[in-house]
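LAB NOTEBOOK - FOLDING QUEUE
OPERATOR: T.R.
BATCH SIZE: 2
PURPOSE: Compare the predicted structure-token outputs for two unrelated chains run back to back under identical settings.
PRIORITY: normal
REVIEWER: second-year student, initials M.K.

ITEM 1
FIELD SEQUENCE / FIELD STRUCTURE:
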Amino acid sequence: MYGTRSIFLGGLCLLLLLQVLPVAVGLDNGLALKPPMGWMSWERFRCITDCKLYPNECISENLFRRHADLLVSEGYADAGYEYVIIDDCWLEKNRDNDTQKLVPDRKRFPNGLNSLADHIHDKGLKFGLYQDFGTNTCAGYPGVIKHMQLDAQTFADWDVDYVKLDGCYANLTDMVNGYPEFGRLLNETGRPMVYSCSWPAYQEEAGEMPDYESLKKHCNLWRNWDDIDDSLESLMQIIDYFGKNQDRIQPHGGPGHWNDPDMLLLGNYGLSYDQSKLQMAIWAIMAAPLIMSNDLAEVRPEIKAILQNRDVIAVDQDELGIQGRRVLTRNLIEVWKRPITPVTKGGEHSYAVAFVSRRDDGAPYRIPFTVKDLGLNNAKGYKVQDLYSSRQLGVYQTDSQFITRVNPNGVTFYKFTAL
């Protein structure tokens, strides 16, 4: 009896061990089951460090406290934006001589990062922090190489909730194993931290094909390509990259592991009102992280309304987590489509559909499609809503004509709810 019980317990322990081992190998941290939403400093505030000349713009404790406050007071937190993320240029130029730990800039972060994290958490928000896999960050501050375990534990000690790991000053060949190793070390701290990786962007630049299966296993999200800049040209280059490469990129986005086309430009200098709507719509179609980078105190009301549009955000955050695709182009009008909930009992998806104008001929362009042209084939038809105006447009059958009129460099965006 004792021997049988021992064999049973031994087998049970082995079974439990086998069940646990895959979790230890991959990231599998249960985080980012929907695309992360928040605010990050880089695109708008870059590496401004002169707080005498630019007291409201320099990378400092005050900047991030102010934006944590604004996320709440301006209604962004209620809309789902929850992360406050420090990008590059927050460090001293050297590690602590005795402990070798990273040191926040003593003048710009005089109270240290624990105090800042407390402020952010007290607002009901989460705290994100940038680092780099290489010897230095892109702006020349200390990177994590040779200190990965120490830095992972330091982030946990600072109550970090989100880590963005860049890839400057690093060997490309080291990234394939180094990024997963840092993710494993973050997990071992016991503190849940969303892990944003950058190694695919560096591989693409070097002409190498990213290993998406490894990315899904080790990262919660990853930058695929170039940094976004504050211009329509930069935005459309990124949209074109994702459209042209969607066959190899789109299948790998999903709950817990997202493709990241980079930050939202809305509220800055480079995009018009219509172009701002365009970025928000396509990011929602792509199930992209919605990470703003702007001065929230300066965002105009009409742009704020786009950023907080609950119907558009609901598309981005749809529980199915299926990334959309560019499905056709006609007369320089692109059609982007994403399957979303609700799904009928017969398995027919609802869809978000964006019509993107690549035209510049001065007037809104009227273009008709049949619902079937859009690849929507539910026999019982669809109830259609304009996601920017919230206007209900009625019920359309598959052979119905659907007409939209799109402003130059603009977008129209609809939800087709399967009946």
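ITEM 2
FIELD SEQUENCE / FIELD STRUCTURE:
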Amino acid sequence: MEEEKPWALLSAAGEQDYLEALTDIMKKHFQIICYRDFLQNPQLHGPKIQAILVWGACPAAKPSMLSLLPSLKVVANGGVGIDHLDVPYINSLGVKVTNTPGVVSDATADISMGLLLASARKIVEGHQIAVDPKTTHIPQWLMGVEVTGSTLGIIGMGHIGFKIAQRSKGFDMKILYYNRNRRSVEDEQAVGASYCQNMDDLLKESDFVMLVVNLTPETTGLIGHRELSLMKPTATLVNVSRGLVVDQDALVKALQSGTIRAAALDVTHPEPLPRNHPLLGLSNVLITPHIGTNTYATTRRMVQRMVENAVAAVKGLPIPNEVKLK
């Protein structure tokens, strides 16, 4: 029975506890070979592999590796973003590319609101004071900004953006959004969101600007000097998309000069930032290490969907989440 299962290449099963615990899902459908074992004898293992299960952008689906996999049928990505994959090139080899939209939306929306709240109410600074051995009294100067009733501008109103809007409604926030395509009237009414025909208007009016776009050539550097200068000096930028969506040099200057109040980032470029990067030394920046989907339940659902996509591709069945270029 084991011999009948197709072979799949995985980056690091067994190296990280959480991923090792999830290999049971993969092993129900595939014989798994780790990337480090594959590299020891690619001529032996390469012809057997029909699927690459990509997690955390690893293993990197580069031409040099793909050329060693003549039987490959699918590169199945765990996560929504596929900016680390050369989809046209992979497709040119007759290989499908898949991702896992939908299942990541709730966890990413949760971390988005967590970043917004933590930055607005100085939660991290408060914790540091509370646990500092030198603290002898509770400071009254640690003042944040109001979230309830403020204006949230969401740039990118897809699955995740809409989930963020749902959560924001509970804080009685005024919700603006900018998107390639306007949502339906029903969707707008469900969360009380107003569509902005141009991004500049959203930037000028928002107290919090939330970036929830995919990284594409069009969104690379979407927020730069000009866009930051349009924001209120009391505004906060929250980024849960990709680091390259923001010009980080421009962001550093905006934060240092008071052009905007603060930034809360789950993504940077690169990840992690060099330890001497100026963003790391600013008191008005909150950074988390790209943990938007990092819950046990969401991770398990991502792996399950990744495997379902891979199985369908290997068997020649309709693929639930194939990435198709527009």
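REVIEWER COMMENT (ITEM 2): The longest helix spans residues 296-315.
FOLLOW-UP: none requested
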